[in-house]
């Protein structure tokens, strides 16, 4: 190479990385029936055989899934293989909520009766004051 050839070649610019954000890979899920089918097919193959590896690749699974699904199957057959919902567990309803509501209604009813009784007593006091002291009875026992 001559010096004139080096002088004429354009400078090398490193490639610019792609700024595009790639979407997250969606997690694969299997139904309980699919898990059982894959387990049966994998158990029909010899351990470590190429057929087993081909089955796992075809289903998009791995050997760790198989061992996890076996444990789930041993714990509760098909029920253990059902998909578990993600996120926090919902809080169960309060068993005393109905009793509390019933007592609140009863309390409100009794408060209304009390207010009515107090109003009646106040009226009776006013009537007694307007009538004056009660006359003595004929027997004279002072009541």
List keywords for this structure.
single chain; 143 residues; mainly alpha; 0% strand; elongated
Q: Name the average pLDDT.
A: 82
Percent strand equals: under 5%
Total beta-strand segments = 0
Radius of gyration: 43 Å
Class derived from helix and strand content? mainly alpha
Q: What is the general shape?
A: elongated
Helix content: 55-70%
What is the tally of helical segments?
Answer: 5
Low-confidence runs: none
Distance between the termini: 139 Å
| Quaternary structure state of the chains depicted | single chain
Q: How does this model look, in words?
A:
This protein has 143 residues and is mainly α. Among the domains are: 29-83, no CATH class; 98-134. It has five helices and no strands. Helix 2 runs antiparallel to helix 3 (50-59). The longest helix has 35 residues, at 97-131. The relative contact order is 0.06. The mean pLDDT is 82.
Short description, anyone?
The chain has 143 residues and is mainly alpha-helical. 58% of the residues lie in helices and 0% in strands. The chain starts with a helix and ends in a 12-residue tail after the last helix.
What layout of secondary structure does this protein have?
Layout: H1 3-8, H2 32-44, H3 50-59, H4 63-81, H5 97-131
Helix pairs in contact: 2-3, 2-4
């Amino acid at each position: 190479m001559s010096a004139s050839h080096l002088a004429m070649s354009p400078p090398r610019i490193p490639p610019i990385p792609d700024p595009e954000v790639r979407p997250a890979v969606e997690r694969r899920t299997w139904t309980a029936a699919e898990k059982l089918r894959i387990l049966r097919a994998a158990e029909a193959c010899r351990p470590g055989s190429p057929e087993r590896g081909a089955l796992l690749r075809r289903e998009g699974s791995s050997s760790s899934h198989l061992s996890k699904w076996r444990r789930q199957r041993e714990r509760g057959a098909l029920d253990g293989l059902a998909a578990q919902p993600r996120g926090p567990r919902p809080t169960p309803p309060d068993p005393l909520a109905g009793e509390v509501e019933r007592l609140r209604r009863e309390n409100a009813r009794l408060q209304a009766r009390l207010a009515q009784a107090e109003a009646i007593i106040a009226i009776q006091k006013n009537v007694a004051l307007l009538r004056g002291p009660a006359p003595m009875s004929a027997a004279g026992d002072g009541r």
